[in-house]
Amino acid sequence: MPALARRPALLALLIALASWPLFLFRLSVPHMIVFDEIHYVAAARQLIALSGPTNIEHPLLAKELIAASMLAFGDTPFGWRFASTIAGAATVAGAFALALVVTRRVRAGLLAAILTLLGFTVYVQARIAMLDTFMLAFLIWGIVLLAGSMRGGSVTRWTAGAVLLGLATACKWAAAPYVAAAGVAFLVLRRGRTDRWPGMRTIPALALLGGVSVATYFLTFAPAFFYTTDALTPRTLLPFQYEMYQRQTQVLPPHTYQSNWWTWPLMIRPIWYLYERADEAQRGILLIGNPAVMWGGLVAVAACFAGWVKTGAARLLAPAMLWTFAVGIFAVIPKSLGFYYYYYPASVFVAVALAVALDEWRVPVGRRVEAYLLLAFALTLYFLPVLSAQALAHAGAFSRWTWFSSWI
User: Fold this and answer.
1) DSSP alpha helix (H) spans, 342-367
2) Rounded to 5 degrees, what are φ and ψ at 200?
3) pLDDT at residue 50, rounded to an integer
4) What's the rounded Cα separation, in Å, for the pair 82 and 23?
5) Is 51's pLDDT higher than 70?
6) pLDDT per residue over 221-267, tens digit each?
């Protein structure tokens, strides 16, 4: 471990490779379209055929990645979902890297990776063809590179981070506010400090962040210029963005699983992505967070804020602010409906905040951290049948996992 600690990039790669088989195992189960795959698999098919625009309320990149996966492995459940497993593994490694950048401690990074993996949400999202899975993978690594550039290698890492934020936004617009947040964070953290982002001037750095991320975003629309019908042109590219905005902000009819943003941290209304007979058995897929991680993480966020007020330590403020921002943006985004899967980025940031808190107060916590991890692992085993679409005993088996009536 000491040797690996001196090579964090290699350690992050090993973490990704270790988590990846967990997402791949039984990936084709169920052998049917699940939840929002109905939109995105259809859109990927249209991209492969270049037949024309579809699902135009969202950008193209995530659907292009699903399409690439289908080209490589066929129009099958495995083909639909394979690219998501890579994004999931990258997200687990990204949680490690984010905690490492914030604390400079490998222990905190490893805790973050473990808690992210045990947090349920990445496991479920890494096994379904949805946009959020790809958005977060690019987003978390963009944050890592931008934050990491603060201590050296500034321009290269800063530019790479801007590219990744552009790619995240090209998966889903929910990532766009992070570009603005990165610029604000740069101004605040650099004020009066010449040792941060050395060799970079303020205006050029902000211009690079905005210009590179926007250019990267627009480049991902290239396939749309080759549609056989309603192809984009340089003149229609910008008006098309406004059409996307209109679709994003339209008033939608009520949905069974809709929920308000303030309910997500408490897991008041998780989502059954699947609950029906499939592959000759009753199966379910429940998007929910690990109660030990999600609820424990809220305590950790509060502790990080309190610790920052007391000590002024940026390593405590950063993960707490990331979680707060990830939740808070949905209080102002003009969406008529909200769903628990919008909490997906925050569910990873709360795991990082929990890891940072456990590492910060490692002396008073002591060996209780092992007991806590065992609790999180036990809950993972308990919920696994309805995270991985295992065969259930009967149609009423869901009651074993629905602790509250709002979980049904």
Assistant:
1) 344-360, 362-365
2) -110, 130
3) 96
4) 9
5) yes
6) 999 999 999 999 999 999 999 999 999 888 888 999 999 999 999 99
CA distances to 109, 268, 383 from 407, rounded to whole Å, are: 32, 7, 13
- DSSP-assigned letter for residue 284: E
Helices (H), 220-290: 237-249
Identify the sign of the CA torsion 306, 289, 92, 184.
negative
Run of H or E residues at 322: helix 314-328
Which pair of structure tokens corresponds to residue 201? 């001037």
Give the distance from CA 32 to its chain's centroid.
Answer: 24
- Under 8 Å between Cβ of 166 and 178: no
d(CA 234, CA 191) in angstroms, rounded, equals 39
C-alpha to C-alpha distance for 211 and 205, rounded to whole angstroms: 10
| Rg of the chain taking only CA atoms, in angstroms | 21
* Residue bearing tokens 């492995």: 73
Q: According to the model, what pLDDT value does residue 198 have?
A: 85
C-alpha to C-alpha distance for 354 and 72, rounded to whole angstroms = 38
Q: Which amino acid is at 325?
A: F
Token digits of residue 396: 């009423």
Rounded CA-CA distance 50/230 in Å is 10
Provide φ and ψ at 277, rounded to 5°.
Answer: -75, 130
Q: Which residues pair with 284 in a beta bridge?
A: 275
More confident residue, 15 or 333: 15
Q: How many CB atoms lie within 10 A of CB 255?
A: 11
Strands (E), 267-315: 271-278, 281-287
